[in-house]
Structures are given as structure tokens and as C-alpha cells.
Amino acid sequence: MVKLFIFLLVLIAEKIAVNGLPESLTGGLKDKRSAFFRKEIQNDEEQTKCAPGIKRFSSLDERKYYSCEEGNGYAVLKTCPGNQLYWPQKEICYQPDEDETQGGQDVRVRRASNQPANNKGRKATIIKRKLLRSDVSLGEFYDAKNDQFLSGVSLWSMEELEKYRKRRFARPSTNYQFDSGKTEDSRMNLMDIDASLKLSFMGGLIEVSGSAQYVRQSDVLTTDETFTLAYKSTSFYNVLPVTAVKNFPKQCDNKQATHVVSKVVYGQNAYYFFKRSVSRKEKKEEIAGSLKVLVKAIPAFSIEGSATVKVEGEEKRFRESVKVRFNGDFKLPGGFPATFEEAVKSFKKLQDYTAQPPDYVNAVPVEVQLTPIQDFCDATDTILVSIGDSLTQKTAEMLSHFNVLSMEINTLLDSGPAFEYPVIRENLNLYKIKLNSKLLKIKEKLQTLLPDIRAGKEGAKELNNLLVENNESPFEFVKSEAFLNSRSLEISALNLLTDGFNEYSLKNFRVADFKQPTRAQIMMNYHHVVVLDVNILQSKQITQKFLQNEKINSSFWYKNDTKASELGTQKKLFKKFLEANQNSNKFGYLISINLRDEYQPIRVQAKRSGVADSLDFIIPDVRQIGKPKVTFVSYDHFKISVTKPNNTWVTHFFVEYWPIIDDSEESKTSLKFAFSQQNTQNVTITNLNYLTTYEFRIVHVTEFGISPKGEKVSVTTKPSSEPTVLKFQSSESSLKISWSEPVYQANGIKIKDYRVVLKDSVGQVVADQQVQYVTNIKFDNLNAVTKYIVTVKAIAEFIRKDSTNTTKKIKEYSHPATLIAYTATNPLNPNLFQANADYYSVTLDLGKSNITQVPRVTGYVVRYSLMDSTGRNIKPGTSRTQSFPGNNDPKKIIGLASGFTYGLEVQEITTVGKSIFSSPVFIVRTDPRVTNGGYSQWTSWSVCNRICGPGQQTRSRTCTNPEPSNGGTNCESLGRSSQTKNCNLKSCFETNIQECSWRAYVEQSSGLIKECTFNKKRSTTSLLVSVKTSVRIHEDPCSYCCARYYVTFNGHECSPVPIDQAITFESRKYDWIPFTIRGFCKLNNYSGNIKVGLNVGQCGSKASIDPDTGNGDFVTSSIIIEEVENVKLYIL
Questions:
Q1: Does 760 have pLDDT greater than 50?
Q2: How many domains does the chain fold into?
Q3: Entry pTM
Q4: Quick one: where's region Disordered (predicted)?
């Protein structure tokens, strides 16, 4: 009756409140129910936001609930229809049983389960739960509001418990499970922990012990791959019946207890937690797969006695890299396993340590059944409100997210850049401190809020508000994930930036941030330093803004493809530049990681020692070297064309070349050249061997180091020089080409074949022929007046072994000798103007030339000859010629004898040669007059036809004064037309010459520089000495510095006239001065070996400073000695 009365009062109070009656009429009607939801009524006017993913949650009123399905994200308080009640856990309205609505009591006062009681009585309140601790006893009290066992508090004494305890021996079970999860949430799932207990554990209400300590693995990083092997066994269980007589019935009044431990399941659990760190060079998927295969194979391993797991190679190294942590209810002799092999051994022996019948000594509690205390006591139902499934899930998910964020921030702090760069470490530590602080506050609130909700003191709205608050904070998972992802990208980018730089092996390189002292060390130790400034580090301000929920500019450099690509390009260029100059004593290199500069994230600077300002430096790019073009190859040299790069810092270049001998560069030669103002520059590499394959490459030179080496190019010198003395003879339809054999030929090779190619003026091949044992060829059926290009190559055939040591016959061509030849013109038909003929001359009209293009006609030659009596044949020796300009004017021939018949022939003179004469096509008859011939004056004597030994000189005269004509006599009766005489009867002198050359640098200020031994063959000869070299001064510049260079013979200067030269230095320090010394020295009465030396000394009294000198740097220096006949020396 009392309960019914209270219930009626509650209904009346609610009715009055709804109809708005004056407070004076409602005073004194407040009951226990209003106390439960007074606060809720007071806050009705305050809008409550709904947490994401929450559709409904309970209120303090058993018939009311909050709905999030309407209200634009805000909770709306609603009432279940009719007499339905709200089911908090399932978040639905339901029709209660009759006993649930009687007595005016809230259902949560009468039920201690997570489901409505569909059957009468109180038995539907039993809870089954996995244990997270092993010190639990049968009959203990349990506080379901706080998820805590009340140790030592019970209704029974130990003796009574032992009397009523019933042990059941179900079939013992043993099984093992596998799991790859690395989060706290995944470990609890493997342990079969229900959602409510999971929430209490994650909220900090529960401490764990025994095998349950497996759930805490605080040192796991996202870069780790994990795999768990779980071993679970059950042995027996003890049961306490509800009919057991109580020793301590007064404990039924315990306000904290909600349940009694009525069943305890005994067994043993063990968890092997395997962890393998994954380096940045490894693939996580591959490591995860290997770890899974490795662990899942453990149950199948067979190990007998003290045997070990025998593996070798890569698998052994992998197993040794796996770390093991053991959490279990076993007492293992020798301690817990720490290595994979120890884990295998202990797992195989777990069965030996598993509790065995009949006593099951080692078994521990692993699971309990909790019965509501009212089933053992005649007490009022305990208040126990269940929390909705979605709220439980979302709250546990929030706490799990904190666990993940903690794992991610620890991973970032464990990275190399976090150790190396204080700014990154400060940012991450600041976030971690605030994250831990936030999690601690949430757990502190949950430790009060969860028990209060379950006790009915607080509504689920407060838990919803906690989720809302976290969702609006910077620690909302998506926000924090994005922030940490940006930090991870920043660290990954820094890792990529520094990848490949082994600073410990390069003394002239460092990576440092703007706070580290290594930057200053590089600057102090090297005169020339190239700095790659990477202005990308985020300051502490970015984390502070994030923690204050301020908007952060997301345009980070590592998210900008253009900037990231530019940095990647500069990094590659810098790395190659560094490698080309590694361990240099002159050049230093530094990557400086600085605070973010949005406008200039990347800058390359060049710094000189003692100069405060820096210059923007352009790193030489090997791609700008390109592939040098070989423009010419000869038997002893080749020419290349080098392109000037678009980089003003590149001022010089090296040409490195070497003969290919077993792929070695030991005989490499380097020549340095300065870039000219031209875009391309031609370089000749000389002094090479015949028929040898060389490799060469280009290296650019800057003030701050050399570029990476350019692409190798191979070139093979020719077996011989080209054919010489190319000549041609032409007709209007043919060319006869002749040549001489090459002057220089490789040892063991005799040229006997030649390839001759004839091309027209546009490059089309007209003929391509190979000849043997001859040095001439004739091409017929050609076009008249046509330009042809002739190339002749000498062919060398020889035997050579390839890389596989197989003998092969090789054919190589010399460089071509080229000749431009022209076929002759067609003959013309001259015309005679009869009216202009007289006794002694005739005027010819030669007509228009048939040559309309190149070559151009420059003149004509008319040959006129006396004809015999038949008028058809020319009399021998009677031909004369007369030349005319190449215009169309009539051509007058004079000096003809009258009374004779003449035949006329015409020849065209062109810019490329002469045509053949035309056939006699015209006959002229003149009046006869006879003239006898006479000699002209003698010519001068010709030059002797021999330089040494017996020779001859000649002179001649002609029968042209006058010429015989019209049947006159010639000059034979007047004597011979030529004379000879002997000349130059001295003996020939044998040539004896020798050259000594060097390229090595010689630093010498006095004494002997270089000496050459010469074999003088005669005692009556002199020596002609020529010295060619270059020198420079090493002292500071001066107005007059001088050095005397002189030649000695067996240590003595030539007398009376020395061979010497004084060199004055008025230029800057280190400037090179080339010079040559040349002179004769009489060495009569001496033959045999003589040492000829180049020396340096003082200039005498005129020298103000004696400078240091050097010679032979990048040019070839030489001493050339020639034995010559004695010369007369005049001393002035």
C-alpha cells in the first residue's frame, strides 16, 4: 500500500507540473522520483548537443529519453508512449512485465542486469565476466557500479563457504589463438572482455594482474609489426548455491555491493606478444607476413630435450630481430622468454606447467559469474542503471583513439629527425604532454561519472557531453590524426632529404639545424662552403595554435608538389655535387635545416671564408654536361665539341681521358680548359696511340668544387693517317683520282686496300668502290661541268681478341681524305666573222657558253695550229695559244702567217678548272708570206735540283724571236734551246734530332729544372737547342721581379755565347708566362752522350727579387736538340 501511494503522488506531481498550476498548490508534493530528475528538469531550457554517432540516450526519468534524430544535432527530450519504459542499454522503449510497474519504483531500482526482466523474480540479473585479476574468491561481494571486487567482504566465513562450495569438473579445455592487432582495443578483444568491462578498464576503474597484464603494451609503435599467440586452458569451476546459509546476514545492508561471486572458473592463460620493428627501408606488409607465418608455426615446432631451433641465413637474422614479451598465469622456471627461440621452448612446455588433476595446484580464477545480492538477501532492489550500447561503444572508441594517438606520437618521437632537430622534438613533446593531460582528465571524470550513471545519480547526458567536449577539442581523432599526419609527413620528408648522406664517412659534410654547433664547425674549417638551406621546420607556434583550436595554414611545403619536387631536385644535385668533392680539404658542404620560410623554402648559398655576404649558388648539373660530340678522329688525336652550360658559376672544365685497359682508369689524364664566350668550344686531345680505344668525359669546374663526372664516351683512334696527295684529272665525262699511301701506320699493319666514295654536290652517293694494291681509280659516265666530292679511306685489317678472348678479324678505316673535283666542260664550236679576216688575223665569235651555273667561266684559250697539205691534220710543233676574257665579245687572233691553213681549237677556263680543247673545226686561209724563226734571250739558271750531293742547274731559250711562219725555217740550225751545269757538290748531312717533354709541375727558384741526354754522333758539328715552357711567380706582386733561364751542356754553359733568356714578372701572382729559348752551341772535338739541361737562376745585379718559379702545369714543356753542321757565330 505504501509503494502504491508513493507512485500515485508521483503521477499527481507530474500532472500538476505539466498543467502549470501555481507553486502554492503544488507545495509538499515532491517525492523521491523528483529527486532523481530535478537537475534534468532545471536544465530543460539548455540545449544539449548530440555526440557524433549517438542516436538516443537515457534520462533520469525511466520513461523519458533524449533523441538525436531530430533537432539539427541537438538532443530532444521525449517520452515513451503509453506505459512503456525506456531500456537504456538497447536504447528503445519496451512494454514492461507487470511486476516492473507495480509499487511506483523505477525499474532501475529493481533490476541489476543489462536487459529487462522478461521472467518474474530476480534471476535475470546474472553477469558473466572475464577476470582481469586472479585474486578473486567465491562468495566475495562485487560492486558493479565501479566494476570492483570487495575483497574480504562476504556473507560467509571460509568454513561455511567450504561447506557449501560445489566443485564441478567439466571437460578440461586447452586452445590457442592468434591475433595481429597492435592496439589496446584489439588486445581486449582477444581476451574476450565485454563492452561494459572494457569501458571500465579504459576509464581507469580497474587494475589488471596476471595474464591480463598483456593488455598493457605501452611501448608499441606504429612502425612495429606485432603478432600474438594466446594460450587458454580451463580446469574446473566452483559454484555457490543461493540457498547457502549466511554467517554474516548484516552484510546484506552493504550499500556498495551489488552482486555476489557465485561461480569461479579456474584455468590458466598465457599470451606471447611478438614484436618486430620495421625500418624505413623494409616493407611493412612483408614483415607482417613473415612474422605471422613464423608465429603461427610455433605450435607445430618439434623440439626434443635441450635441442635448439636450427635455422640459418636470412630466417635466422629475422628471428633474432623479433622481441618477445610473455604475460601469463604460469610460473615458468628460468624466467620468462625474451627471444623467439625461448618462446618456442616455453610454449612447448606449457602443458607441463598446466594445472593437472586431481588438485589443479597451479590453476587460477579466469572467469566469474556474478549473482545480484538480492538473490541471497531479502533486501530492496539495488539501483544499477545500464549505459546505452552506443554510448559505451563511442566512449570506448574515444579512449581507444587516445591510445592510438599516444602510439603515433611516441612513434614520431622515436624517429631520427625528432632526436636530431630540437624544434621537431619540442613540437611533439608539447602535443604529447597536452594529450596525456587531456586523457588523464577524461579518465578522472569517467571514474566518477560511470559509477554515478550506474547508480542513477547522473544521467547519460553527462557522458554524451563528455564525448561532445572531446569532439570539439583538438584531440578529436580526425583532427589529431591530421595534425600528427602532417608531423609524420614532415619527418618523412626530412628522412628523404637526408637519405643517402653518410655524414660520418665524409669529413667535409654535415646536416644540422640552425641551433646546432656543427654548422659553425664547417664554416670555420673550410674556405669555400656550399650551404643547402632548407627552411621547412615548423616552429612551436604551430602546435600551440593547434592546441588552442585555431586554424592552421595547411599549405606546408611537403604538401606542395612543386616545392617538394624542387627540394627533391636540389637534394639530388647537392648529393651528386658532394660525392664529386667528398673529403675535400678545400670545400665544405652543409645541409642546414631552418625554420619555415613560406616564400623561400629552399636556397643554395656559396660562402667564402672571411666574406660576410652569401651568394646564391647554382649547383652544376651533370645533365648540362650532356654527351660531348666527337667531331674528328685521327690516328693520334681526336677533336670534341663541348657545350657551355647555362651556369655562370661554371668557369672551367676538365677533359679526362684514358685508354681502355681492363676497364681501368689508372692511366687517366686530365686537361683543364677555360670556357670561352662561345656557346660551344672545340678541344683537341693529342699525343694518342694508333688504333687504341679511349674513354673520355667532361667535368665542370666551379670555385666551390667540381661537378659530377659526365657521361663516358668512347673513341677509337684510326690505324693510320689519311691518304695523302689527292689529285684528279678530269674530262667532260670522267674523273681519275690518285693518292699516296698514309704517312703514319700502326705497327704490324700494312695498308693495301682503300675505299673510295664519289658523291654529287648534294651528298648523294654516285659510286662506292674498294681497290686493292693500287692508289688510283677512274670514274666514267659522269656529267660534264659537275662538282663531285671524293673521299678516300685507308683500310686496315688485323686480328684482335674480344672480351670473351675470341679471336676476330677486324676491319678499321682511316679518317677520310677529301677532294673536290669537277668534270670538264663540253667543247665549243667557234664561229668566224669572214668580213673581219685579213692577212695576219682572224676574229672569232665563240658563241654563248653552255655553263649556266657554278662553275663560272672566267676565260677562253684559243689554240691555232698549221694544218698539213691535206688540211685535216695538225703539223706537230706548230701549235700556238692566245688567251681571252670570259665574256661574249669577239676574240681576235693576231700574228698569223699569210698563205697558210690553220686549225682552231677552243678551251674554256672556269673557276674550278679547264675544259679539254675542242677538235679543229675551222680553217682559215691567208695570203702567203715567209718568216724564218729566231731564238729569244737565255733564261736565268734554275735552282739546284739537290740540297746536298751532286745536282744540276738548267736554262733555256725559245724560237720566238721571231717565230717561223708561212714555211719559214725554225731555230734548229741556230743551236740548242737548253743548257745544263753541275751544282751543290757538298756531301749530304744525316739528320739527328731528339725531343724530351714533360707535363709534371716543377716548383724551382734556382738550379736544374730538367735534363735530357742526347747522343752526338759527330765531333765536327754544333747543337741547336730549343726550349719551350711556361712559368709563374709565387711571391706577392712586385714592380720588377726577374729570373734567368739558361741551358747547360754537361753542367756548363755554352761559351763564348750562352743560350739563355731573362723573364721579368710584372703580372699578378700565379699568372702563367709562356716563353721559348733557342740557340746554337759549338761543341767541336766532342761526340757521344751529352746532358743538356734547363736551369733557372738570378738575373744578376738587375734582379730586385728572386721569385719562385714553376713550369709544366697544364701544357707540355719540351727540350728539342738537333745536331747541325757548324755555323759561324758573330759576337757583337
A1: yes
A2: 8
A3: 0.61
A4: 953-978
